[in-house]
C-alpha cells in the first residue's frame, strides 16, 4: 500500500476525464488547422502536398515524446519551406529529405552543445517584435483566400468569426474554432454553396508514410549540395522553436527545458526525413490555437499529429469538403490573439524608451519584408546591441582633481569600459599640461575587453613619452586580471 501514493503521483497529467477531453478537442482543432497549412507550405516548397502532411504528422508525434515543451505544436512551416525550396526545385525530393535528415542531426548537435542558452540574450523588445510580426504574417497568409472570391466566402468567414467571438462568452467546454469549422462546413454543404475547399488545395494522401533512406549518392558532392541548406534549416528551425517555446512559457506560466526543445526538434526532423517529410519546426499559429483551446500536456501534441493522419486517410472525403473560409476565420482569430496590442497603445509608446520601440519596429519590419522570422530576430538583436552599446558608452565619465601641492593629478574614471565607451578615453587626458605624476583611478569603473586595455596602454605610453610617471589604481579583481594578462601585449601603434 505504501507504493500507491507514488503510483498516483506518476500517473499522466492528461488522465483526468476533463483534461483528457480538453486535450483531445484541442488536438482535433489543431489537426484541422494543420491540413491547409501543410498543403500550402508544400506548394511553397514545390513538392507534393503529401510531403508536407506527412511531415506534420511525424513531427507532432515524435515531439510528443522527445520535445521539451508540452502543448507546443511542430510541423511543416513556411520558414522551412522557403529554406528547402531551392533544393527540391534544383535537385528533387530525395535531396530535400536528405537535407532534412542532415538538418535534424545539426539541430540535435546544437541542442546538445547548449545553443538554447543563447536565448537569454534576446531582449523583450525583440520578443514583442517577433510576436507582432508573426501575427502579421499569419494574417497576410490568409489574404490569398480572401481575394478575387465570391461574397459567399466573406459571408462564411464572417459566420466563423462570429462563432469564435461569441461562443466563449457562453461556454468554453468546446473549443470555439472546432464549432466554427463544423458549423461553417455544415452550412456550405447543406446549402450547396460553391466555395473553395480544402480538397481544392491539393490531393490528400491515401496511404501511410513509408520509412526509407533518402535515395541520394553517399558522396562528398551530395554533402556539398545539401550542407548549406541543412545548416540554414537547423538555425531557422531552432530559432523559431525556441522563440515559440519561450512564448508558450509566458502564456502558461510554466518553464520548459530549452535544451530538450532543441535536440527534440532535431530528432523530429531526422524521423521526418526518413519518412519522406519536408521537415519543419514549431508552428506558432497552431501552438496558439492549442494553448488557447486549453491544452497543456503532450497528449494534445500527439493527438494533433495522429488525428491529422486519421483525418486525411480515413475521412479524407469529409475533410476535403471543409471550406477554406472556415480555416481562414480560425487563423485570422489566431493572428488577432497573437498580436501584442498593448505594445502599440499610444500610452505604452509614450512611456517606452525610443530605443525599445525602434528594436521592436525593426524586428517587425525586417520579418514582414523577408517573410523570415530568423532574419527578423537577428536584425532585432543586432539593433538592440548597437543601441545598448551607444547608450552605455555615454555613461562613462572622466573627472580630474589636482593635489594641493600641484605634483599629482588624479583622474577618476566612472562607468563600463568596453570597445564603444573606451575608444574616446584616450582624448580625455591633458598630456601636455599635467604634472610629473598622474594617477588613473578605476575604482568606479570595470574593464570588459581588449579594446579598453589597448586604450589604457595608449594613455600610459603618451604620458611616458613626455616623462610623466603614470599609475593605474583601484581596479576590481576581474578588471585587474584582464589588464595584467593583456597590457603591453596587444601591439599596434599608439
Automatic annotation (TrEMBL):
Transmembrane segments: 50-66, 95-119, 126-145, 151-167, 174-195, 215-238, 297-315, 321-339, 359-388
Native source species: Actinopolyspora righensis
Keywords per UniProt: Membrane, Transmembrane, Transmembrane helix
Domain STAS intervals: 410-494
Xref: Pfam families: STAS, Sulfate_transp
Protein location: Membrane
Membrane topology designation: Multi-pass membrane protein
An example Gene Ontology CC term for this record: membrane
Main location: membrane
Protein name as catalogued: Sulfate permease, SulP family
Keyword match Membrane: yes
InterPro entries: Membrane-Transporter-like (IPR052706), SLC26A/SulP_dom (IPR011547), STAS_dom (IPR002645), STAS_dom_sf (IPR036513)
Amino acid at each position: 500500500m505504501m507504493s500507491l501514493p507514488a503510483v498516483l503521483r506518476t500517473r499522466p497529467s492528461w488522465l483526468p476525464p476533463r483534461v483528457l477531453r480538453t486535450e483531445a478537442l484541442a488536438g482535433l482543432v489543431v489537426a484541422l488547422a494543420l491540413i491547409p497549412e501543410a498543403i500550402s507550405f508544400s506548394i511553397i516548397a514545390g513538392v507534393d502536398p503529401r510531403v508536407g502532411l506527412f511531415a506534420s504528422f511525424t513531427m507532432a508525434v515524435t515531439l510528443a515524446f522527445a520535445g521539451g515543451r508540452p502543448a507546443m505544436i511542430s510541423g511543416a512551416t513556411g520558414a522551412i519551406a522557403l529554406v528547402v525550396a531551392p533544393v527540391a526545385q534544383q535537385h528533387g525530393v530525395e535531396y530535400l529529405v536528405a537535407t532534412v535528415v542532415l538538418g535534424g542531426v545539426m539541430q540535435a548537435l546544437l541542442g546538445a552543445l547548449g545553443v538554447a542558452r543563447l536565448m537569454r540574450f534576446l531582449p523583450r523588445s525583440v520578443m514583442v517584435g517577433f510576436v507582432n510580426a508573426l501575427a502579421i504574417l499569419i494574417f497576410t497568409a490568409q489574404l490569398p483566400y480572401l481575394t478575387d472570391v465570391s461574397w459567399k466566402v466573406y459571408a462564411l468567414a464572417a459566420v466563423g468569426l462570429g462563432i469564435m467571438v461569441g461562443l466563449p462568452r457562453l461556454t468554453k467546454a468546446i473549443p470555439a474554432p472546432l464549432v466554427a469549422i463544423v458549423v461553417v462546413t455544415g452550412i456550405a454543404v447543406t446549402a450547396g454553396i460553391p466555395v473553395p475547399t480544402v480538397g481544392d488545395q491539393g490531393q490528400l494522401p491515401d496511404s501511410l508514410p513509408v520509412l526509407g533512406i533518402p535515395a541520394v549518392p553517399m558522396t562528398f558532392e551530395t554533402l556539398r549540395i545539401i550542407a548549406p541548406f541543412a545548416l540554414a534549416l537547423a538555425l531557422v528551425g531552432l530559432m523559431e522553436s525556441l522563440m515559440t517555446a519561450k512564448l508558450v512559457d509566458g502564456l502558461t506560466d510554466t518553464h520548459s527545458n530549452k535544451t530538450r526543445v532543441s535536440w527534440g526538434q532535431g530528432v523530429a526532423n531526422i524521423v521526418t526525413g526518413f519518412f519522406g517529410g519536408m521537415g519543419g519546426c514549431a508552428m506558432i499559429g497552431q501552438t496558439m490555437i492549442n494553448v488557447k483551446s486549453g491544452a497543456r500536456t503532450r497528449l494534445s501534441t500527439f493527438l494533433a499529429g495522429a488525428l491529422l493522419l486519421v483525418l486525411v486517410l480515413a475521412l479524407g472525403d469529409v475533410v476535403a469538403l471543409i471550406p477554406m473560409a472556415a480555416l481562414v476565420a480560425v487563423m485570422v482569430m489566431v493572428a488577432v490573439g497573437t498580436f501584442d496590442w498593448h505594445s502599440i497603445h499610444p500610452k505604452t509608446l509614450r512611456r517606452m524608451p525610443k530605443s525599445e520601440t525602434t528594436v521592436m519596429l525593426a524586428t517587425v519590419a525586417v520579418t514582414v519584408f523577408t517573410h523570415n522570422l530568423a532574419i527578423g530576430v537577428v536584425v532585432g538583436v543586432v539593433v538592440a546591441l548597437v543601441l545598448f552599446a551607444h547608450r552605455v558608452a555615454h555613461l562613462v565619465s572622466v573627472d580630474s582633481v589636482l593635489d594641493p601641492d600641484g605634483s599629482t593629478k588624479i583622474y577618476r574614471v566612472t562607468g563600463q569600459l568596453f570597445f564603444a565607451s573606451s575608444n574616446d578615453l584616450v582624448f580625455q587626458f591633458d598630456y601636455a599640461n599635467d604634472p610629473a605624476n598622474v594617477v588613473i583611478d578605476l575604482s568606479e569603473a570595470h574593464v570588459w575587453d581588449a579594446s579598453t586595455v589597448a586604450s589604457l596602454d595608449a594613455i600610459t605610453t603618451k604620458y611616458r613619452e613626455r616623462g610623466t610617471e603614470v599609475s593605474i589604481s583601484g581596479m576590481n579583481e576581474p578588471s585587474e586580471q584582464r589588464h595584467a594578462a593583456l597590457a603591453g601585449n596587444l601591439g599596434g601603434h599608439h
